[in-house]
Amino acid sequence: MNNAAGCVATKGSADSSLLPDLIMMPAFTANQIQEYKWNDPYYPGQLRFAATMGNVGEGPLEIFGKNEWYCGDKRVKDSTGTCPGKSHVRQKIYQNVYYKQGDTLLKKERFAGYNYYDSKPGHNHYHVEDWVAFRLMQYTFDKNGTIIKKKPIAEGRKETYCLFDSGICTERDGFCVYKDTTYTEKNLHNYGLGTYSGCHATFQGISVGGYDTYGMMYEGQYIQLPKGLKSGTYYLEIEIDPKHNYLEKDHANNTYVQKVEVKMQE
Question: pLDDT for 123-160, tens place per residue?
């Protein structure tokens, strides 16, 4: 972080920014997805799946807080207690956007939403809000295979995630794939820039080449399927940063789509 001489800036950025670029990594979802029968004793009518979000941009996705806590729009003293209606006390968070100035690496901050302390079993750490959205869709195609209509069937959202590097893209593993490109230490500019190891209130992120994984049995990793849903072909959509809270290189590649055969709800 102290010497930017060798850093590559995002192409076309006005101020030599090193922007993150978030993608979903298909291998994890494709290998961890399961439909549960409508009357399953533990997960009735759930479509459960893993989600892995990676950063293949030129800069880290880095967020931080300034100890600014709110109940709705009202500023409160600290993160303790709950708000009216038992909602969480939330902290304003900011994104650090890195950029080059000569051989120096500088950063600018911008508002990027909120985080809060999640006390559920297995968590007990700080989560960023509105990180992903889940949708089960029905597509209609024309004779050329082009989608001409999308019908939403069910939606779900794991409202919050803790952002940190649970893994790193390497040539050996070959996990970090988007379309026809496999991202590794050999083709990622500024590989390894940023270090994020925990779910802290004041500092979280995903480094360049880092990824954050949530297995299909993690809390919230599912869509509740409608009762009696007709068996057939549907499409799972997982979108990172659906509200575009974060500045990044390309929002167009934030949605992952996977075909799903539903068989157990009728």
Answer: 556 778 888 999 999 999 999 999 999 999 999 866 55
| DSSP output for the chain | ----TT--PPTT-TT-EE---EEE-HHHHHHSEEE--TT-SSSTTEEEE-EEEEE-SSS-EEEEEEEEEEETTEEESSS-S--GGGPPPEEEEEEEEEEEETTEEEEEEEEEEEEEEE-STTT-EEEEES-EEEEEEEEEE-TTS-EEEEEEEEEE---EE----SEE--TTT---EETTEE--TTT-TTTT-S---S--SSEEEE-TTEEEEE-TTSTT-EEEPPTTPPSEEEEEEEEESTT--S--S-GGG-EEEEEEEE-S--
Report yes or no on 139 lying in a domain.
no
pTM comes to 0.91
Q: Which domain holds residue 105?
A: 17-130+162-226
